């Protein structure tokens, strides 16, 4: 089962990613000023996953990706895939596990590496 992982961007805005069962990022959300907005959108998505649209694209470099549309609004953008089959597997994983996936909050972690 996948997971929604909330974290902070470098500009102090929040984002979340949906990770697959194997830990690979499937899609990344847009930015949010407040963490609760992020959490609310995840819950809304989980409740309305059946109505989500996946717009498929091919980049100029030949990679495949999709934009996730929820309630007529751009919600998230996927990572790049090497084949259209892998792209479809990513979409299938979202549909299969998205509504039951847990939410992990790593936005409060300040990673400090001491040399």
UniProtKB/TrEMBL annotation:
This is DUF1508 domain-containing protein. It comes from Flavobacterium bomense. The lineage of its organism: Bacteria, Pseudomonadati, Bacteroidota, Flavobacteriia, Flavobacteriales.
């Amino acid at each position: 089962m996948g997971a929604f992982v909330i974290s902070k961007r470098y500009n102090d805005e929040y984002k979340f990613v949906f990770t697959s069962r194997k830990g690979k990022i499937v899609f990344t959300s847009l930015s949010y000023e407040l963490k609760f907005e992020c959490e609310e959108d995840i819950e809304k998505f989980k409740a309305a996953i059946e109505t989500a649209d996946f717009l498929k694209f091919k980049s100029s470099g030949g990679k495949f990706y999709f934009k996730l549309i929820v309630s007529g609004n751009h919600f998230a953008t996927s990572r790049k895939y090497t084949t259209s089959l892998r792209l479809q597997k990513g979409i299938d994983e979202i549909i299969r596990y998205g509504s039951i996936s847990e939410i992990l909050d790593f936005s409060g972690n300040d990673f400090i590496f001491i040399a």
